[in-house]
Design brief:
By secondary structure, this protein is of the alpha+beta class. The chain has helices at 5-18, 24-33, 40-49, 76-83, 103-113, 135-148, and strands at residues 53-56, 62-65, 84-90, 93-98, 118-123, 127-132.
């Protein structure tokens, strides 16, 4: 089974927070130790998307860290069980119901998954409209979200 972007980026954050990572080469080796095979291009995109910055440590040796104002979107699998109420597909659209005030974070987490079948999301207060490439993709994503939420 292929490990997804979100899981890989979570591992990168864990590695950067947990120790001194001096280069992308070192980060790549550490990721491989955790079972992630990643190309240099993908790793560069991850570093940019995660907003990692290189700073000099107390010894003068540069390493990656997170900016002080860093806020990382919680993962979809962390949000869905607590916030998802419904998911119903209509053609290539998926209407997702969430708890009041929760549509934005859930929509952002869906976007962060970067699933190729998802064209985009529009979030209100408690409803998300997910536009997918096909009706079958909409139905499939609805089932996955409901399953992740603990439903049928």
């Amino acid at each position: 089974m292929s490990r997804g972007k979100r899981e890989r980026q979570d591992a990168i954050l864990d590695l950067v927070r947990g120790g001194v990572v001096a280069s992308q080469g070192a980060l790549r080796s550490l990721l491989e130790g955790r079972g992630f095979r990643v190309s240099q291009g993908t790793l560069s995109r991850d570093v940019r998307e995660l907003r990692l910055v290189k700073v000099a440590g107390p010894s003068g040796r540069a390493h990656y860290t997170l900016p002080d104002d860093y806020e990382h979107t919680p993962s979809l699998r962390a949000l869905v069980p607590a916030l998802l109420l419904s998911a119903e597909s209509v053609g290539n659209l998926l209407v997702v119901g969430t708890r009041r005030g929760s549509a934005g974070p859930v929509a952002e987490a869906i976007d962060e998954e970067a699933w190729p079948e998802v064209v985009g999301t529009v979030a209100g207060d408690d409803t998300i409209l997910v536009v997918l490439r096909s009706a079958s993709a909409a139905a499939s994503l609805g089932r996955r979200l409901l399953k992740a939420a603990g439903g049928a």
